[in-house]
Give the backbone structure.
Amino acid sequence: MSYLVLKPGMVLSHSIDDYPEGIVVPVDKPYRWTSADVIRKVKWMAVKHFGKKNLKVGHAGTLDPLATGVLLVCIGKATKLAEEFQKAPKQYLAGVTFGATTASYDLEKDVDTRYPLDGVSEEALRRVLPGFIGEQEQVAPLFSAKSVDGVRVYELARKRYKAGLPVEEPGLLQASHITIYDLMLEAFGKSVSSDELEGKIHVAAMPAGLPQADILVDCSKGTYIRALARDLGEALGSGAFLHSLRRTKNGGFAVEDALSIEDVNYCLKRD
């Protein structure tokens, strides 16, 4: 018997034994929630629903707090499959802003440097995208969960940032082998400023009038889309950062089939 994939509208029994291979919950992670936040919330609901305090709950591959989309949550014996799910190909819709950089390569930190836009255009971007497809070596952002001598590099990056020091430290991180299977330019235009975006939560300010692109990325495990944004900016003789990120696929799970936290609550509601 295979694991159960939770779908919107399902109501589960109150015995975890009725799901001997466990349960996989494709969650659409909310903006500004950490992956750990999602696990804590789903575990709290699952423990109440099944009445089992030592219930195992885990996820298959983290998402940054400023990203949304498919986060696979595994319950019960399905937690044994987490590593297998993490190895699966991923797809993201990446929003990239050109002409500026931030220390974190996304909007977690404010813009620190502005760059010329002479080489930035839709045509130029279309020309360089094919060069990023295939197997390659990629250096992760220092604001990441990579470890150096047992220390998470984001801890080092935050200390340097708070001290007003350059976050980048060449040679600190070794490049990782990744594969980008496909890149597709979905849209190209100019940004509006944070003040012009009503009702949207911002962590850092969004500069106005800079070129932006929406790029669909099919890639392997371990690919940092923030690092891809950085490299695309450099390829155009400019700078770039990620202003939005949505994981649209994780292996065989698509965001269209993912559940909101409210959906999960309904499926695990008590009688």
Q: What stands out?
A: The two ends are 27 Å apart (CA to CA). The chain has six helices and 14 strands. The chain has two domains: 4-88+252-267, 90-139+175-250.
